[in-house]
Amino acid sequence: MKKFLGIIFLGLILSNNAFAGPYESLIKFNRWLSLNGYDQYLDKTGDPVDMVLDRSLCTSEATWDECVGADGKLIPTKDRKYTLIYPNNLDVKIMKRGGGSEIHYQANPNFGTLLFYVFHYLEDIKGFGKYLVQPSKNPTKFKSNLIDDKIVKKQLQTKAILSYLYFENDEIIVDEISPKDRFGILFKNDTKWSSMSMGKSLVSYVTGHAICGGYIDSIDTTLNDWPLIKNTLYSKKKLIDILNMAAGDQKYVDDNDGLKKTGRWYNSFPISAFANLELKNSEPTNSKKYHYNGLATNIIMNYVIYKTDKDFQKLLNEIFQKKAKVENSVFFLKQKGISDEQGPGRYSFRASRYDYLRIAKAIMDDYQNDTCVGKYLKEIHERRIKKNLKKGHEPGFNLSSTYGGQFHMDYPGLKNRVVFGLGGFGGQAILIDVENSRIVVLNSLHYNNKKFRYNVKKLLLDPIKNGRLN
Asked: How far apart are the C-alpha atoms of 408 and 200, rounded to whole Å?
């Protein structure tokens, strides 16, 4: 009886969210494994660590205090049914860096830790709002002419890759998703996976549409018409310089440590918070040197929100729902409870694996059809700048020599090829060969220079260079 009461007490604590972040996710992860029958990942040799009320007996939303049956009467505790929750047997290790919120770059986690972090990343949007785009009523349909790619299959079994798609000449040629003995119990065709920094490129794509919609004059517009960032370095810069990560903000922000003055992370606060503290009276350097950071992208995104005003949602609908024709909803994150006037938008974007392909194809179609947005893409390619980085400064999947308008460009072995690259933490990558109609979409959980470094040459560069139909 004492053990039973102890479990109920624990359930009360957990239901009140006494734990936060990855530790709360770990508790939910154990529940999810138990409730979905993944006994192979549970340790049932000892006592349960939690119990969950079977809500099927309740006609109203069940809580620990109330469960009303079909007769309208409260069901006594002794007559209720519970599912016992056992700990997992996966030897999950919560990362130390960043409070455990993500797998740090140098880590070599075991399978259980990787599986847990898939769960955690899918959970880790609490506390944020969304700029949400609903699915298209007529989503883009893909033809398939599939081949059996043994290299891709092997990499999915040994690396932290979740999904791989190769598209050529209007057909999907390679289509692989992590199997159920890896990450497939969590990652599925409709799973909305984080873009990480691939979302930076999507902010640029949205910016191109804002220019073509007449909301912004051109990429040479200076941001001095935005009151929110008055008296900051960004108000003195042209849009193209910020797009190229050459805003002269080296003194104030770093992509590893956030805002240098306080250590605040640029994705955790609205633009107004930085404009009034770390960036107040800041001055840009004279250099137009490449300096990659997420604050620059959030400045761009929130400038577009400011310039489009009440039409921002309309603009997103035009891009993702009507042009890309996504099958599932997609969204950018924003700071919850913060008005658009304060700059709450962040480049973090979520979409399903096929919807990432739909968006990449829309980018390619714009370029090839020479639409207004296509002309924007051609201009940012023409005005790209050299990165001039030391070896090892960027991971292999982003190892291009130039950067233009929030896209990685000029990859090794692809000289004189127009390839737009999107890359993000964990190995996320999309490469778009806009002239030869080839696209690679790779969703990944973790990438490093050791055990979890997937083969960039064979999975990303060679398919773009040589194709798969030859």
From this structure: 11
In this predicted structure, the answer to whether residue 433 has a pLDDT above a threshold of 70 is: yes
Spatial distance between the Cα atoms of 318 and 305, rounded to a whole number of angstroms: 15
> Cβ(345)–Cβ(302) under 8 Å?
yes
Dist. CA 417–CA 437, nearest whole Å: 12
pLDDT at 287: 86
Q: Which residue has the higher pLDDT, 405 or 69?
A: 405
88 in a domain, yes or no?
A: yes
Amino acid 65: pLDDT: 60
Give the model confidence (pLDDT) of 112-124 as tens digits.
Answer: 999 999 999 998 7
Instruction: Give the CA distances from residue 380 to residues 94, 112, 172, 204, 425, in Å, rounded to whole numbers and listed in that order.
Output: 41, 42, 28, 10, 23
Give whole-number Cα distances, 305 to 207, 341, 372, in Å. 10, 8, 20
- What are the percentages of helix, strand and coil residues in the chain, rounded to 5? 35, 20, 45
Task: Count CB atoms within 10 A of the CB of residue 71.
Answer: 8
Please indicate, yes or no, whether the overall pTM of this predicted structure exceeds 0.90: yes
Give the model confidence (pLDDT) of 231-290 as tens digits. Answer: 999 999 999 999 999 999 999 999 989 999 999 999 999 999 999 999 999 999 988 899
129, 337 contact by CB (below 8 A): yes
Q: Tell me whether residue 126 is in a domain.
A: no
Which residues make beta-bridge pairs with 42? 88
Q: Residue 266 — left, alpha, or beta (φ > 0 → left; ψ -120 to 50 → alpha)? A: alpha
d(CA 280, CA 64): 50
Question: What H or E segment, with its residue span, contains residue 384?
Answer: none
Residue where a domain stops, chosen among 119, 151, 177: 119
* Phi then psi dihedrals of residue 193, to 5 deg: -100, 145
Give the Cα separation of 52 and 58 in Å (integer): 13
194 bridge partner residues = 350
Q: For residue 433, what are its two tokens?
A: 């060969």
460's tokens: 């990303």
How far apart (Å, rounded) are the C-alpha atoms in residues 89 and 112?
A: 8
Range of the domain at 32: 2-119
Residue 337 lies in a domain: no
216 located within any domain? yes
Query: Tokens 């220019």 — which residue?
Result: 211
Cα–Cα dist 457/299, whole Å: 33
Q: Are 93 and 109 in contact (CB under 8 A)?
A: yes
Query: What angle do helix axes 372-382 and 198-212 make, rounded to 10 degrees?
Result: 120
**Does 384 lie in the same domain as 362?**
yes
